[in-house]
Design goal:
Elements: H1 2-64, H2 67-74, H3 77-85, H4 89-102, E1 106-111, E2 116-119, H5 137-143, E3 148-153, E4 160-169, E5 175-184, E6 197-201, E7 207-210, E8 218-219, H6 225-234, E9 243-244, E10 247-249, E11 254-257, E12 260-266, E13 275-280, H7 283-324, H8 326-393, H9 400-425, E14 433-436, H10 437-451, E15 458-462, E16 469-472, H11 474-491, E17 499-507, E18 510-517, H12 547-557, E19 561-566, E20 572-579, H13 583-598
Parallel strand pairs: 8-9, 15-17
Antiparallel strand pairs: 1-2, 1-5, 3-4, 4-5, 6-7, 6-13, 10-11, 11-12, 12-13, 14-16, 17-18, 18-20, 19-20
Helix pairs in contact: 1-7, 8-9, 10-11, 11-12
């Protein structure tokens, strides 16, 4: 029965593994397809870009080729005579003949009011003769002496076309009329040769030419109110309302037009402000990309199957070797367990010895410091006796308030000395717990403000948004911060614009607190000596030089490091780094604390 269950388990695991590999290969095939598509579409886009530039040149040629004829005709004597005499019969026939020979849709002459006085289509039922086109931009430009050009739907015929114009001058060089020509849109049809698809937009981003008539007279981007008003005044697109096309350029290589995806290329603007947008069908690119993905995946599948077969053979060989050496491995594991147990015991003994050595060294240091303690306490005791003796000799002349103030100063100095010695000589043996350095800094600053002149200087506290958890004793770490703030205040006593900053930051696996000031710094002294007992760089203070030694001892209890350095630009900076606590460690510490309280 056990063998049957085991075989079922192995079979289920095999199918799960095969399913996972199938998913992996599907993802790989998809990735290969995307990569191949990007390469092929880039090649296609480069070719499309070249084709777009060629189309742009064709647009320029078609829009410019009739300008020399129009310029020459504007200087024709019959044109000027017609404007001066108002007799168009001869010019009408001439314009008719030139229109047929030049392949133009129409040629017509207007006076300075915009009224057409002669036209090539004078014989047609729908003729330009007698019509006024002063509202067209090409008329206004030519009236000002400039060459005019404008694409629009014909106001008379309703047929779109490209209108160009030139000024007509008399013998004195005065403008007396405007000669215009209409170029048929068929003149631009060559850009859609070979089945190319695309569209041409003007300066307002309105489609004026397109391979698909459904795209005509729509905008690539929404029109502004000013643009809509100009189009309406100029009657550019008759009574048509310009609607957005549904145009979205996804990136430089592709665009979506009315929901269809195309490979996209855009030409530079023509001289008249037109832009050619070439659109290519991406089906061929998709097919080539799919083929590459399928072939590449098949090759990788074959390589994977071959590697799997080789691995299976090696696993069988390794299994046979492991069976022969099993007993030796068990013996080695047994010996290793014994060595590990012995090493753990040795490490525990070493740790205990180290703690005892640290305590012994501190007590030895206290013995060496006893002379300094006697000296430090002897001076205030002598002063105390002197003040009391003076009060006994002449209690009438003694100022009571001054005497009390002097006695309080002496008492404070003695209390400060004993407090420093107590903290330095006896480390806190209570269990540590997870604490947040934000709370330590806040409490320390609040207490320091009661005794230190922090209101007389600028204090900046830079803290991260996240919690800064370390294992330790909150009151003792607060004492470290207070000592550093006290030293900074002493250093800044005579400095202009005093400044202190406290910065909490994460460095590797440690939370670090940086306390910096803009004081005189260490004056070139060795920063490491600052943490030795009874060493001080400020002779003006009444301290024993134990403040930084206490800080170093407390930080050492917390398995951290403390250091000092000169700041760039002046001042001192103290760095405290403590091992950070991960979430799992915090939970374990809280659980242990709860168990102790329950006991």
């Amino acid at each position: 029965m056990f063998i049957s269950i085991w075989r079922s388990f192995i079979t289920a695991q095999k199918w799960r593994w095969l399913g996972l590999m199938a998913v992996v290969f599907l993802v790989l095939a998809g990735t290969l397809y995307v990569a191949a598509y990007r390469v092929f579409v880039l090649d296609e886009q480069v070719a499309a870009q070249q084709q777009a530039q060629t189309g742009r040149d064709s647009l320029d040629t078609a829009s410019q080729q009739h300008k020399p004829l129009l310029y020459a005709l504007a200087n024709d004597g019959d044109v000027k005579t017609t404007l001066l005499t108002g007799q168009p019969s001869k010019l009408n026939k001439k314009l008719y003949d030139l229109t047929a020979k030049a392949g133009l849709e129409a040629l017509y002459l207007m006076d300075l009011t915009g009224l057409t006085v002669a036209a090539s289509n004078y014989q047609n039922d729908i003729t330009y003769s007698g019509k006024n086109y002063s509202f067209r931009p090409y008329f206004k430009d030519a009236k000002l002496g400039k060459s005019g050009a404008f694409f629009a739907i014909g106001a008379t015929t309703g047929i779109p076309g490209y209108f160009i114009s030139e000024s007509v001058l008399d013998d004195q060089g005065n403008i007396i009329g405007v000669l215009a020509a209409k170029v048929s849109v068929s003149a631009f049809a060559s850009i859609w040769a070979d089945g190319a698809r695309g569209l041409v937009s003007n300066k307002d981003r309105v489609v004026i030419l397109a391979s698909d008539n459904l795209w005509l007279y729509s905008s690539l981007t929404p029109l502004t109110h000013v643009q809509e008003q100009n189009i309406k005044v100029q009657r550019q697109f008759a009574d048509r309302h310009i609607e957005p096309l549904g145009w979205d350029v996804k990136d430089s290589n592709s665009a979506i037009v009315s929901g269809d995806l195309f490979v996209y290329a855009q030409s530079s603007e023509t001289e008249n402000g037109w832009t050619l947008h070439l659109l290519l069908d991406p089906t061929a690119v998709q097919q080539k990309s799919a083929l590459v993905a399928v072939v590449s995946t098949a090759v990788l599948l074959f390589v994977w199957a071959w590697a799997l077969m080789i691995r299976s053979r090696r696993m069988k060989q390794a299994l046979q070797q492991s069976e022969t050496s099993r007993s030796a491995l068990i013996d080695a594991n047994t010996r290793l367990e014994q060595e590990v147990s012995e090493r753990i015991l040795a490490q525990a003994s070493l740790g205990k010895a180290q703690k005892q050595l640290v305590q012994t060294s501190r007590m030895a240091a206290l013995g060496q410091l006893s002379a300094s303690v006697i000296h430090e306490l002897g001076q205030p005791l002598t002063a105390l006796n002197t003040y009391l003796a003076a009060a006994e000799l002449d209690n009438h002349d003694v100022n009571a308030k001054e005497l009390i103030a002097n006695l309080q100063n002496v008492s404070k100095r003695m209390q400060l000395t004993t407090d420093e010695l107590r903290v330095f000589s006896r480390p806190d043996e209570r269990g540590q717990q997870a604490i947040d350095l934000h709370e330590v800094i806040a409490s320390a600053v609040a207490m320091a403000k009661l005794t230190l002149p922090l209101r007389d200087l600028k204090l900046d506290i830079l803290e991260p948004d996240r919690q800064a958890k370390v294992m330790g004793h909150k009151p003792r770490l607060e004492q470290v911060i207070i000592n550093l703030l006290s030293n900074a205040c002493s250093a800044l006593a005579d400095m202009p614009d005093p400044y202190i900053s406290i910065h909490i930051l994460l460095m590797d696996d440690n939370w670090c607190v940086q306390v910096a000031d803009n004081g005189p710094g260490f004056s070139g002294q060795d920063a490491q000596k600052l943490f030795e007992a009874f060493y001080t760089t400020n002779a003006k203070t009444n301290g024993m030089g134990l403040g930084l030694a206490i800080c170093a001892a407390i930080v050492e209890e917390h398995h951290g490091q403390i250091g000092a350095q000169e700041r760039e630009g002046g001042g001192a900076q103290f760095n405290i780094c403590l091992p950070r606590v991960l979430q799992a460690s915090v939970l374990g510490s809280d659980l242990e604390e709860n168990q102790k309280q329950a006991m």
